[in-house]
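Q: What structure does this chain adopt?
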Amino acid sequence: MSKKLKSLTILILILGMLSLACNLGKKTSSLLGEEYRSEDGGFSLNKVNDYSFEDTFGIVNMSAPDATAETGPGIMAMGGLMEQEMTNDDLLENMKSQASTIEIGKTKKTKVDGISGLLADLSGEYHDVSIKGKIYLAMVSPKQEFVLIALAPKDQWKDVESIFDAVLDSVTFFEAAPYTASVSENNEVFPALSNEPQEIRQWATSATAGSEYSSTDWSAERATGMPDVDVCQDDGNAWASATSFGEDWIELAYDIPVSPTEINIYQSYSPSQVVEVDIVDLNGEAWIAWTGEPVEVDSCPDVMTITIELDEPLYIDRVVVFIDQSVLNTSYVEIDAVELVGFPEGQEFVASNSSEESNQDEPASSSEAVNEDMPVPTNYTGWMADSVYQGWVNIIVNETKLKDLDKIMTIEGIKSTENWKPRPDHADTYIYDMGPEKMKAYISVTTDGIVYKKSIASNTYPPDYALDTVNQANYDKLNADYKEDYVIYYASMANLLESPGFLRESYYRPEDDTLVEIYEWLAPNGDKISGAFYNGKLTGIAGLAYIPKQ
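A:
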């Protein structure tokens, strides 16, 4: 089985991809936004307006603002090269053999961008919710596949169907980029790791300035994180000094020290009045990276790129930008964000290992300190510290027995009347009222009376669960860590976010002896960071997600 089909299997079996994270440009629809091109997947499409969006190695996931982890609504597009030649019928049979919880209806031949494929309806049940959907599949070439899937609760399907049709109508195909992968000991597929040094890109997480227009709008903190001013205008989401004349400065701090290669200064108003950029090393010593004079530029917003070439590694965690607004006399220069690009400590030494001799005294990569042995925070508060949730946390999948459930949960469960059987050895599911309104736990047991799955009703959260650590900057750090080693340990993620997280779902996969756990961390404003962990490691496709509240 190819890497792509394996990823798709995961989505169909657990329907979880729809919440972790449309369409194409040649035909327009009010439902769709900008065109997106997936080089790994070999297709382009237009994004769905107001849907979250994520593309990982040719697998595009889009989910509605009200989507749940279990039932959507969501759309997934998948494409890429396969190891063996297949026909449309071969691809269909593969899909049928893997879609144990979803029924694929009668197919009809349908052309998309001149490519003949198969279109069919989908139906099924999940957590007592009737699911409807559609699937389109096609072999673009004998070894290049494409699949588009939409799923939603039955009562929402009518609206989602029109979105699916619009997305499908916008799809175009081209030759997919070759994919190189390595296989772990337990047969999980990862992108092949390079021995070459790997740069990381990061945004500032804190900032101070010589002055600021106010302590809220136009403050120094407005220059942290990613750019959020996409037009040339006076905007309080960027930093501005107290006055529009004279000299001033802003200092930005970053979480990961790097040996810098590039600095990108995003100026959203009255560029470019930058006259000096300094970098500050870990000892607090400042080094001049660039100097110049204010000069009028044609572009606004403007990105000022400074390339840095060092003879030897110099690790920094701060950047200072100096401005002089007395020369051009235009208006306030406003800085929206400053991106720092460079190699984390240890990366340069990776490259030197290619030589015959290596220095054993060189420091190890910082990633070596990130492992499963880190203690996980235990700071449950509010409702999550309640005995019912703590009982839920203490149920051990593939170990806890049915007779112990009520005692561990501290309340009595109700046997479900559902007839959906997700596994051959499924016996029964028991429902527990967790406390917050509409929050219910579903705990499934085997015919041997062993818990193999537990989940909490979708789209329900502890009413008092909110973390200041859930923000774009921390997600960017997690994403950078993932792209470095293609693994994030649960303990590492929990420590960065300073919370054990809200355990949404946990289940055991006997076919590969894997425990799957879905955790979510929620910000006060409703933003969410989630992770899918396989035996304690986030290694799966699209397993890490940052979902802003719509």
